[in-house]
Amino acid sequence: MGRALLVTGTDTGVGKTFVAVLLLRWLREEGMRAAALKPVETGCPAGPGGAPRPEDAAALRDAASPGEPLSRVCLYALATPLSPHLAAEREGVRIDPARIGEAVADARARADAVVVEGAGGIAVEIVPGYTFADLARELGLPALVVAENRLGVLNHLRLTLSFLETAGVPLLGVVLNDRRRDASPACLTNGAEAARMAKEAYLGRIPHGAPALPDEAAAAFRRRFLARPSARI
Ligand SMILES: Nc1ncnc2c1ncn2[C@@H]1O[C@H](COP(=O)(O)OP(=O)(O)O)[C@@H](O)[C@H]1O
Ligand SMILES: [Mg+2]
Questions:
Q1: Which among 13, 60, 66, 173 is least buried, having the fewest CB atoms inside 10 angstroms?
Q2: CA quadruple 112, 117, 121, 127: dihedral positive or negative?
Q3: Which residues make up the environment of ion ligand 2, defined by Cβ < 5 Å?
Q4: Are 205 and 220 a contacting pair, CB within 8 Å?
Q5: What is the pLDDT of residue 230?
């Protein structure tokens, strides 16, 4: 039974997919069988046949398990660029959280490490009244929080960590992602502040354009995710 985690973020567009791809490539380099899931993806452009094509799921799949059918990586690919619960309602789709749970269990049965990417941030609803934090708690997925390195992130990070704690979701780690090239004062001080907030869960910074998971983050990730007995995560 492989271990699994949820990649969430301080907001939408902060680098969850970017970081998840680096993580999946690194897991494979470590010799692990990796699997990726993007259970619900919204705002999907039309694919060749006209059906919504989940781009995040495709990027994750290519990093984790090339050749795997996209329908196994993304259970609900929706065209509407809204929160999952609203996009599903508009498109007349009924999202079943139990199906997501089954997909995660199935992925854990065939892989050593499963990376599940959320949609938006941790308080986003999958169905009305049921958030990604609820899903993570129910499935026993610790959260890896991707925080975009910019002015305002400390507030978003504190809110995210507080929400996780209230919901009873273990914090696996926090990475500060240099999504944009930015040398503003906040970007220079955010790292130390994020470390103060997340304590030992702070895994470090992801540089802009990083081609691979930086050594510091990889070592911290190995310590916090791979070195623990999987039953505890
Ligand atoms: N560290 C980074 N360096 C360069 N580009 C990045 C970095 N992080 C994110 N991006 C880019 O920013 C955009 C949003 O990132 P993405 O991973 O799609 O966010 P999310 O999955 O949280 O919505 C994408 O175009 C992505 O390639
Ligand atoms: Mg994404």
A1: 66
A2: negative
A3: 16-17, 56
A4: no
A5: 61
